[in-house]
């Protein structure tokens, strides 16, 4: 509990997490509000309220990366490891704090977007949370934010430099996953297993034959995994990267 308190204090004692949380909340809900206001008058599908979740996800991942790279930048990580020589415990505590915060922020983003859509859209007949799929479309955002934060923590611990970690996260998510689809013959097969593409299926995809088709709204949802299988895949990748970072942090000099 002491380590958790220490990591919480360290996280909130800097301005960057506050700015990142504010940006994620305002950016995502703001875009959703614009979508709702300018909807063409037809019934607004529930998945349309969370199409902008990726903007907040990238901001949250930057915040998570900063939580560890900032310590390496200013050298405070050395004091932490001197106080807790096993090194793994403070890193795990940091992960618990950052992942929990990111998950709660994701839920605030999702339900804030949903609430704005119900308030601003002309027809809210399809915005009811009356099925398991409907709850997953909204509440699932927080789970993806949490897993994404864990992935970013792992990348940050491996790279140790803010610019490098942020570049890897954003370039992979925004460029690599899109460009890989243009590879002849095998591009589509590779793209459907890209982690952020799979994560989108968890949030936007429907169960067999149920719910609206996200592709009609401009969302890319591909792959053969079920929605919950998609989340397990994304979370599994995040966990592998994070565990690898623990091994590296344990073995190398701070």
From TrEMBL:
Q: Where are the transmembrane segments?
A: 18-39, 45-70, 91-114, 134-159, 166-186, 231-249
Keyword field: Membrane, Transmembrane, Transmembrane helix
Matching entries from PANTHER family are given as:
INTEGRAL MEMBRANE PROTEIN-RELATED, MEMBRANE PROTEIN
Q: What is the official name of this protein in its record?
A: ABC transporter permease
Q: What organism is the protein native to? A: Saccharothrix syringae (Nocardiopsis syringae)
**Lineage of the source organism?**
Bacteria, Bacillati, Actinomycetota, Actinomycetes, Pseudonocardiales
């Amino acid at each position: 509990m002491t380590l958790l308190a220490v990591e919480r204090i360290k996280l909130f004692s800097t301005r960057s997490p506050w700015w990142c949380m504010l940006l994620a909340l305002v950016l995502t809900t703001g875009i959703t509000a614009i979508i709702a206001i300018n909807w063409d008058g037809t019934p607004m599908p529930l998945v349309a309220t969370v199409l902008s979740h990726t903007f907040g996800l990238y901001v949250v991942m930057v915040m998570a990366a900063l939580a560890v790279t900032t310590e390496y930048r200013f050298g405070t990580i050395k004091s932490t490891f001197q106080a807790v020589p096993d090194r793994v415990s403070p890193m795990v505590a940091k992960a618990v704090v950052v992942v929990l915060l990111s998950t709660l922020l994701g839920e605030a983003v999702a339900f804030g977007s949903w609430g704005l859509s119900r308030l601003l859209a002309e027809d809210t007949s399809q915005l009811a949370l009356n099925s398991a799929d409907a709850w997953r479309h909204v509440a699932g955002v927080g789970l993806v934010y949490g897993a994404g934060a864990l992935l970013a923590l792992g990348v940050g611990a491996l790279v140790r430099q803010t610019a490098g970690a942020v570049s890897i996260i954003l370039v992979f998510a925004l460029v690599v996953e899109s460009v890989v689809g243009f590879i002849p013959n095998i591009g589509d097969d590779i793209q459907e297993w890209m982690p952020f593409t799979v994560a989108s299926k968890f949030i936007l995809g429907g169960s067999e034959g149920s719910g609206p088709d996200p592709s009609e709204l401009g969302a890319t949802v591909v792959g053969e995994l079920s929605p919950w299988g998609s989340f397990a895949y994304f979370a599994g990748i995040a966990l592998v990267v994070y565990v690898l970072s623990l091994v590296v942090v344990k073995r190398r000099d701070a």
